[in-house]
Design a protein that fits this description.
Blueprint (H helix, E strand, L loop, with lengths): L14 H24 L7 H22 L17 H21 L5 H26 L5 H16 L9 H8 L9 H8 L3 H15 L3 H4 L14 H28 L37 H20 L2
Helix pairs in contact: 1-2, 1-10, 2-3, 2-10, 3-8, 3-10, 4-5
């Protein structure tokens, strides 16, 4: 399924259309969260394992997004905040997360390629931690991190697949600059996301995240950018909900492809998971009352059934 944005000259979303977009995103995040929990603690290949972690973070970001969305059933509030900036960061996080997720869950063609992908990501993480600790003035673990970085660089230099990559890609990877070996254009082509539309969304959402001119030049009294409901913010939020619903649905399908039994967890807004809205929580079993005891006859039947099962298992019948 291609991830695209519907093109119109002057898109405007009314309250009804907005509600439909919200319901679509609600169903998508419910199913994604249910599948994430249903596939936890599985023994899988390393790339699928790390992809499932990214998927878990995507679910967390999606939950944060729907809790920040006006008219959401996921939260109670005295008022709704219609500022698009409240959801823009979560939307861009899902966009970034989906590209990394799709990159990781892709089946590598060889063990050498798998090791390259994982070690490039490890090296990026190690390098970022070194920079973070240095900037914070924390030197306790710097030597350990630098030793780890040298070891990871050695693994990559001795990897036959890594040696086939373009020289400039090898150079940047060895510096720990990037967590992946594919560039963005390659990743967008693989997931079927139009480059121009991606760049437009990414730029629009980033402008609101960083409070750049585009996000405040057209603030209107009692309207756009103030938190009160208005056509522009409502339309931007609805568009983000539509795109992110498609992202979550696509990622969920990829997870189910690797864990087919998790398909049973996909029930739209009726999916079961925890924590979450009350209607999505697993049904609690009725506890036995403290003063309620089994009768002697019931105990005998229980013991007999267990004994019968044990005998059949022992006798192979």
């Amino acid at each position: 399924m291609s991830l695209t944005v519907t093109e119109t000259k002057k898109p405007t979303v009314d309250r009804d259309a907005y509600t439909i977009a919200l319901q679509k995103f609600d169903a998508a995040i419910c199913e994604a969260t249910a599948v994430s929990q249903a596939t936890a603690n599985r023994f899988v290949s390393s790339n699928v394992g790390y992809a499932s972690r990214v998927f878990t973070r995507m679910c967390g970001t999606g939950i944060a997004m729907i809790r920040a969305t006006p008219l959401s059933r996921w939260i109670r509030s005295d008022f709704d905040d219609w500022q698009f900036a409240a959801v823009a960061g979560h939307a861009r996080g899902l966009l970034d997360g989906y590209l990394l997720f799709s990159y990781l869950i892709e089946t590598p063609e060889s063990e050498a390629e798998l090791k390259t992908r994982i070690n490039v990501m490890h090296l990026n993480d190690c390098t970022r931690r070194i920079d973070l600790h240095k900037n914070l003035g924390i030197t306790d673990n710097i030597v350990e991190f630098e030793q780890q970085r040298t070891e990871l660089q050695g693994r990559l230099k001795n990897n036959e697949f890594f040696a086939t990559l373009p020289t400039d890609v090898q150079k940047q990877c060895l510096k720990g600059r990037f967590p992946i070996i594919d560039n963005r254009d390659m990743m967008l082509a693989k997931v079927g996301f139009d480059k121009g539309q991606f760049n437009a969304l990414y730029d629009l959402w980033s402008q609101h995240i960083h409070i750049l001119p585009l996000s405040f030049y057209r603030i209107e009294p009692n309207g756009r950018g103030t938190g009160l409901e208005n056509n522009t913010d409502r339309t931007y939020i609805a568009q983000a909900l539509d795109v992110c619903a498609a992202i979550l649905a696509e990622a969920t399908d990829l997870m189910v492809a690797h864990f087919p039994d998790a398909k049973a967890a996909c029930k739209g807004t009726n999916s079961t998971f925890s924590p979450g809205p009350a209607s999505n929580l697993p049904k609690k079993s009725t506890p036995t009352k403290k003063n309620e005891r089994a009768t002697p006859a019931e105990i005998c039947r229980l013991a007999e059934s267990k004994l019968t099962a044990a005998i059949k298992k022992t006798m192979g019948k």
